Amino acid sequence: MKAFLILEDGTVFAGTSIGSARDMISEIVFNTSMTGYLEVLTDPSYAGQAVVMTYPLIGNYGVTPDMESDKAWPDGYIVKELSRVASNFRCEGELNDFLISQDIPGIAGIDTRALTKLLREKGTMNGMITTNENYCMDEILPQIREYAVGDVVSEAACQDTYVLEGKGPSVALMDFGAKKNIIKSLNQRGCKVTVYPADTTAEQIIRSEPDGIMLSNGPGDPKSCTSIIEEIKKLSETNIPIFAICLGHQLMALAHGAKTYKLKYGHRGGNHPVKDLAGGRVYISSQNHGYAVDYSTMDSTVAEEAFINVNDGTNEGISYVGKNIFTVQFHPEASPGPQDSGYLFDRFLDMMKGAK
After folding, report:
1. Is residue 313 within 8 Å of 341, Cβ to Cβ?
2. Residues 8, 27, 68, 333: which is the catalytic one?
3. Where in the chain is the domain with CATH 3.40.50.880?
4. Helices and strands (DSSP H and E) totals, the chain
5. Across residues 111-140, what is the average pLDDT?
6. Residue 331 bears catalytic tag
7. How far is CA 37 from the centre of its chain?
8. Domain 2-149 -> CATH class
9. Which runs of consecutive H residues, i.e. helices, occur in 47-111?
10. Mode of pairing for the β-strands spanning 170-174 and 192-196
11. What are the beta bridge partners of residue 307?
C-alpha cells in the first residue's frame, strides 16, 4: 500500500505503508542511532512525536525483550528500509507486526537522508503520514500546522506508586516518563527504588524519608510542567541528594530561575559527545531531547555548569552550589547507546552515603 509523508512546508515524500494504516499528524524528529530501535520505540520521551530513523536498515533483529516501557510511544515511525526478515536468537517477532499491534502508522521506502537534511536546515516540523492517495493539500496543511505536543508527561508517567526492593539506599524516583533502565541501573546497584507518579507532592516524598531523589526523563516542553516545577523547588530546599536526567535536569534548572528553549532539531541518538568540565574528559552519550537549558540565564552563585555538548556547546549538566544536587541532559543509563557515563549513578550513591 502506498503511503505519503507530508510536511508542514508542503514537502511530500512517497513510500510504502508500514504498521497501522490510519492517518497520523505529529511533530517529526530524527534519531541517529544505528541500533536499539526497540528501545527508541518504547522510550516515553517520544510521546507526541513521530520518529525518523536515519540508519537505512531497521528491524533486522526483530523484536527482542529490550523494551524501555510496556508499550510503544511515538505517534509514527519513518524508515528507509524495514527488514521483512528478522534474525536473532532473542527474536520474539517481526518489527512490522509490533507496529501493527501498537497501532503505530509508519512509512518506509523514502529518502530518510534527504528528510533529515531538510529537518536540520529548516528545523523540526510537523508532518502527516497518510495512505490516502487523494489527499487535498489545501485541507490538510492547516491541520498539520496546528498540531502541538500537549500534556504528554501525565500520559507517559506511571499512575500508581510501585517499589523495586533492594538492600541499599532508598531512592524516590519521580516518574515523568521514566525509561526502565534508569530504574534498573539504580536497582542493580542495590537501591530500593520507589517510583512515584509525576503529580506526587514534595511533602509525600519527603515524608517517606528517602536517602536520595531521582528526577526522570520525560516528553514535552519543560515549561509546561508548572506544578511539577513548584514541587521540585520544594525538594531542592531539603538536604536530600538529588540526581536528575533529561527532563528532570530541565525542570530543576527552571525551579532555580533559569530558562529553557527549543533546539532547532534536537539531540537524538547514541553518539553525542559531552565534555565533563571538571576533568576535561569527553564521553560519548545517548541523548533524546528537543529542549535545552539556557545556562546563561542561570545565577552563577546558584549553580555551576558541569557538562557541555562538544558539537554545539549547549548545556549538558549542572552542579548546584552548596547542595547535594547534580543534573545531566544526556542519558547515563543509555538504552540504546554507550554506557560511558554510567559512573554517574555511582556518584549518586556516594552522595547518598555521604549525606547520612
Report:
1. no
2. 333
3. 155-355
4. 10, 19
5. 97
6. yes
7. 13
8. alpha beta
9. 95-101
10. parallel
11. 276, 317
Active site residue 272: no
CATH 3.50.30.20 residue ranges for the chain: 2-149
What DSSP line would sit under 320-333, residue for residue?
Answer: ETTSSEEEESSBTT
Residue 2: per-residue pLDDT: 97
* The CATH number of domain 155-355, selected from 3.40.50.720, 3.40.50.880, 3.90.930.12, 3.40.50.1820: 3.40.50.880
Q: What percent of the chain has pLDDT over 90?
A: 97
Catalytic residue (choose from 39, 158, 246, 316): 246
**249, 256, 289, 331: which one is catalytic?**
331
Q: Which helix (H) or strand (E) holds 248?
A: helix 247-255
The distance from CA 122 to its chain's CA centroid, rounded to whole angstroms, is 22
| Integer Cα distance of 170 and 192 in angstroms | 5
**C-beta of residue 62 within 8 angstroms of C-beta of residue 92:** yes
Q: What pTM was computed for the model?
A: 0.96
Would the pLDDT of 199 be above 80? yes
Check if 133 is active-site: no
> What are the backbone angles phi and psi of residue 212, rounded to the nearest 5°?
-155, 165
